[in-house]
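Customer escalation, tier 2.

The customer says the design service returned an amino acid string that "doesn't look like it belongs to this structure." They asked us to rerun it and document both sides in this ticket. The original structure tokens are below, unchanged.
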């Protein structure tokens, strides 16, 4: 599996710095949708292109099907960001992000759980083979 490019790493750092800015301003305890919108706004302020709630179809036997999957944030058409506001990020949340990476063909994803006291404990970087 190839390592993410320097551009992937640069954008991922910006996402993490933006998440820290949002978490510092708002703290834990809000709805996931609030963190998602604020993070998208912060990334935009930093000059990054962000698409929210990107439809992710599933290919099955040659047919693209809308199965209701949505990427929370797609940053610079490089990084998939899955935003959570849960007591504890579970292995199923990481599996969800890995599935999104596999289905979308993107290589690098960040799972960010804002419902933690220290944000560093809520950030998980995942790399998928494409």
């Amino acid at each position: 599996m190839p390592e993410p490019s320097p551009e992937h790493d640069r954008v991922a750092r910006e996402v993490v710095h933006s998440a820290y800015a949002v978490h510092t301003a708002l703290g834990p305890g809000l709805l996931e949708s609030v963190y998602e919108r604020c993070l998208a706004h912060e990334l935009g302020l930093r000059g990054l292109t962000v698409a929210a709630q990107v439809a992710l179809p599933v290919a099955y036997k040659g047919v693209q099907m809308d199965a209701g999957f949505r990427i929370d944030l797609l940053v610079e058409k490089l990084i998939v960001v899955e935003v959570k506001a849960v007591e504890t990020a579970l292995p199923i949340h990481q599996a969800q992000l890995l599935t999104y990476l596999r289905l979308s063909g993107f290589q690098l994803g960040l799972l960010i759980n804002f419902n933690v006291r220290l944000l560093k404990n809520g950030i998980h970087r995942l790399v998928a083979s494409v």
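Tier 2 assessment: The sequence is consistent with the input. The chain has a mean pLDDT of 95. The two ends are 8 Å apart (CA to CA). Sent an explanation to the customer and offered a walkthrough call.
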